[in-house]
Automatic annotation (TrEMBL):
GO terms for molecular function: G protein-coupled receptor activity; olfactory receptor activity. Belongs to the G-protein coupled receptor 1 family. The chain crosses the membrane at residues 27-49, 61-86, 92-118, 197-225, 237-261, 273-292. PANTHER family: OLFACTORY RECEPTOR. This is Olfactory receptor. PROSITE patterns: G_PROTEIN_RECEP_F1_1, G_PROTEIN_RECEP_F1_2. The keyword Membrane applies. It comes from Trichechus manatus latirostris (Florida manatee). Residues 41-290 form the G-protein coupled receptors family 1 profile domain. Keywords: Cell membrane, G-protein coupled receptor, Membrane, Olfaction, Receptor, Sensory transduction, Transducer, Transmembrane, Transmembrane helix. Coiled coil: none annotated. It holds the Pfam family 7tm_4. It is found in: Cell membrane; Membrane. One of its GO terms (cellular component) is plasma membrane.
Length: 339
């Protein structure tokens, strides 16, 4: 039976993470802390890799853009989720929902291929160390991050425009805590075959191609490491890949958990938890993983914090000396008048 939509939707209702009032406040504080750590960690990584002279290498160039994408899609979801906890109003406007979907798809798609570019960078660094600076030139690095951004923008606009140009039924409740394309498809009255096919093709191509690049690069890296005679060299090679490999395992592990489960084991609760981990927790974990596991980042962080402490202490000392000088001068002037 054909369904025709004569209702113009101005807003959607998000079901949110929980409908239990006693959990609203604890979850708000939990996710606020997670989001603040994510913002501070990723912004810190962007600034640190920009200003520190020892972090001006291709590896940290890609790390900076990984932080940009993490900050991008966590901010697309996080603030609205926190607001819903506070005001207890899960409404989201039609245009804000479309905007959220655009930025979410754009940053996640970009991150998938930036992780692949980082894998290629590690492959070149370990398998062709003498040609590393030649192969991974600044121009090549910019190409390897610009293409994912442009491609991510194209995919996000294509999918979002296609979805929001179709007709929605009167029912406007999205079974999620953010505007997800699959949840929106269930609200459409129009034939969704074409858009479902587009989403399936892009998702399959993006995930499979990026995952294959990562796997091939690390198989070649592993083969190169096993050929090394020096135990110290093998340890150093493993340590340079450790942080990125951890990030990759967490990222793709969550994707596999979300989309490779059999339908019989799918449930709303498990999908919700996986989505929270994917959109909120991973952007917090990535800068922490690189901070704790990477000595260069730790040294740069300690150095920068030390410089900031010196600046603040010097400025405070100067301020106190200046105040004491003015007070002393005024006291001296009063004494002269009385004398």
């Amino acid at each position: 039976m054909d369904k025709h939509n004569l209702t113009v939707l101005n807003e959607f209702m998000l079901t949110g993470i929980t409908d239990r009032p006693e959990l609203q406040a604890p979850l708000f504080w939990l996710f606020l802390i997670i989001y603040l750590i994510s913002v501070v960690g990723n912004l810190g990584m962007i600034i640190l890799t920009k200003i520190d002279s020892k972090l001006q290498t291709p590896m940290y160039f890609f790390l900076r853009h990984l932080a940009v994408t993490d900050l991008g899609y966590s901010t697309a979801v996080g603030p609205k989720m926190l607001i819903n906890f506070v005001v207890n109003d899960n409404k989201i406007s039609y245009y804000f929902c479309a905007t959220q979907l655009v930025f979410l798809i754009m940053f996640i798609t970009s991150e998938v291929f930036i992780l692949s570019a980082m894998s290629y960078d590690r492959y070149v660094a370990i398998c062709s160390p003498l040609l590393y600076t030649v192969i991974m030139s600044q121009r090549v690095c910019w190409v390897l991050v610009t293409i994912p951004y442009l491609y991510g923008t194209f995919v996000s606009l294509l999918v979002s425009i296609k979805i929001f140009n179709l007709s929605f039924c009167g029912y406007n409740v999205i079974s999620h805590f953010y505007c997800d394309c699959l949840s929106l498809l269930s609200l459409l009255c129009s034939n969704t075959h074409d858009i479902e096919l587009i989403i399936l093709i892009f998702a399959a191509v993006d995930c499979i191609s990026s995952f294959l690049i990562v796997v091939v690069c690390y198989l070649l890296v592993l083969a190169a490491i096993l050929r090394m005679n020096s135990a110290e060299g093998r340890h150093k090679a493993f340590s340079t890949c450790g942080s990125h490999l951890t990030v990759v395992v967490v990222f793709y592990g969550t994707l596999i958990f979300m989309y490779m489960q059999p339908k019989s084991s799918h449930s709303f609760d498990t999908d919700e938890v996986a989505s929270i981990f994917y959109t909120v927790v991973i952007p917090m974990l990535n800068p922490l993983i690189y901070s704790f596991r990477n000595n260069d980042v730790k040294h740069a962080l300690h150095k920068t914090l030390g410089q900031l402490c010196n600046i603040f202490s010097q400025s405070s000392l100067y301020h106190m000396i200046h105040i004491n000088y003015i007070m002393g001068f005024k006291l001296f002037s009063v004494c002269l008048r009385r004398g």
